[in-house]
């Protein structure tokens, strides 16, 4: 007779999570972020307390932020380890929606465990309950359905026997991977059930990824052999598929140059002769020049969003081969689809191609353009700062990188929104997979500091450097205090351009007047805009901090920050008006068709011209 263990639903859930292991014998779940409320403190709180040594619980200050931290933890582990997040039933649950959307877009695993209303309905409506006048089964947690890859509401303790294995499969499947929500009604959390003891036995979880079909590989090889000017676009799936070695071998063996998406940057060393740098709207001159001429694009592990394709203008002339574990992504842009794990597909394709190499002039041109771009990066990031001018983003990035000459391989840079991801994709140099941690699938302001915390928890031996604008910092900075509390040291480099400089430039590029982006252009009361001392603010959260006047002082401050044992913020004033002109590509942002402003009408005419060019190119 099978033995049973009588546990509450919350106790069973936590015990099951604690029993899951990676193939290397590590805990699959690195811990649980929790902000307790009446909807989870009694059930989940008691269960987590009992397992606090084997499944650590981390307290945060904001539910969205702690979910960002959990997502970053999984990203830093290339999806092989992850975290869970638990909240109460109302605002705590709805605060998870933005983070869930971020994880959904970026194909990253996170387990969301929000409390829910009473299944019994006895105290209906309970505190924080969102009532639907037409459906009594709806709660605040239903907002998470569109942004979850798997959603379940646990209305009886026995339901965990099927829901939890399904959740783990989604979280560890390359094609399905994304956020999982298990809504936990607070009375069900406390209900007991006799669970099979075998349900809680330690088990190794395999990360599932499909092998390529032989016919798909044959068709892809035929298309590549017919190409004269092939280009490989490396996406996040290369990193998540642990395929960096396969990518390097494939590129070198067949002479095919490589361009990187935001998520795929770092898969190939920045100074590799065939690494052209970033591609697309925020890409390098080298990558975009070859993409614009390529007759075949091998898109590996990328979802081909508009920043990668230049709003579908960059390589419309090319035959696209899409290698992706998810068929939805592999088929984009009318691609010849290879539904498969990146490593397995590249190895199989290379074997089929045998000794075939692309034309020597194409490879030689790639080498030449890559060398030229690296020289441009060196020039841009080492330009002397002019007297009486504020530095721009490129100057700051250069100073940060110069401070890491001795430890560059150890650095992880974290960023998410504004101009900085564009300049970082162009200019940041990394030779280590995972050394570039930029969330740009959702471009979520507020991810940066929370993401750095999660990254540091995942990679405590690495120096984690957040480069962030003042706008994102003001939007969400509370987990800087959490990093101090946990002893998870991060370095924050804050660029203060006094507003939303990136969107201010975009606004004017579309013909608009400067309005409501830079603080100087916002409506203000009689006292005017406040002066914000970011260093003082960081110190109030427990971090060490200082403000510097120029990039020379920034380099020196970075040495102090590196030597610090606790989180350290360095702020510097920057110019909101000067972008990095090198690199880049057109990005479609719709301009008003009718306006009283001449600048808008001129921008609209240019926009319509670009649409005509794209349409003509697509038809060709």
From TrEMBL:
Pfam families: TPP_enzyme_C, TPP_enzyme_M, TPP_enzyme_N. GO terms for biological process: inositol catabolic process; isoleucine biosynthetic process; L-valine biosynthetic process. GO terms for molecular function: acetolactate synthase activity; flavin adenine dinucleotide binding; hydrolase activity, acting on acid carbon-carbon bonds, in ketonic substances; magnesium ion binding; thiamine pyrophosphate binding. Residues 417-571 form the Thiamine pyrophosphate enzyme TPP-binding domain. The keyword Glycoprotein does not apply. Residues 8-129 form the Thiamine pyrophosphate enzyme N-terminal TPP-binding domain. The keyword Transmembrane helix does not apply. PROSITE patterns: TPP_ENZYMES (PS00187). GO terms for cellular component: acetolactate synthase complex. Residues 217-349 form the Thiamine pyrophosphate enzyme central domain. Keywords: Thiamine pyrophosphate. PANTHER family: 3D-(3,5_4)-TRIHYDROXYCYCLOHEXANE-1,2-DIONE HYDROLASE (PTHR18968:SF9), THIAMINE PYROPHOSPHATE ENZYMES (PTHR18968). Belongs to the TPP enzyme family. NCBIfam families: myo_inos_iolD. This is IolD protein.
